[in-house]
Amino acid sequence: MRIALDQGLKDLHAEVLILGSMVEKAIQRSVEALRSRDASLARRIIEEDVQINELRFRTEEHALLLIATQQPLVHDLWAVAAILNIITDLERMGDHAEGIATISLMIGDEQLMKPLIDVPRMADKATDMLRRALQAFADHDSAVARRVAAEDDEVDALYNQVYRELLTFMLQDPRTIQQATLLLWAAHNIERIGDRVTNICERVVFTETGHMGHMFKNAPTP
Amino acid sequence: MVTNPIEKELTKPVVAPTPPKVATVAAATDVGTRNVAIKVENFSLFYGSFRAIADVQMDIREREITAIIGPSGCGKSTLLRSINRMNDLIPGVHTEGNIVLNTQSVYGDNTDTVLLRKRIGMVFQRPNPFPMSIFDNVAYGPKLHGMRDHKKLSEIVQRSLEQAALWDEVKDKMKQSGLSLSGGQQQRLCIARTIAVQPEVILMDEPASALDPISTLKVEDLMRELRASYTIVIVTHNMQQAARVSDMTAFMLGNTNLEDRSGRLVEYSPTSEIFTQPKDKRTEEYITGRFG
Question: Does B19 contact A17 at a Cβ distance shorter than 8 Å?
Answer without folding.
Answer: yes
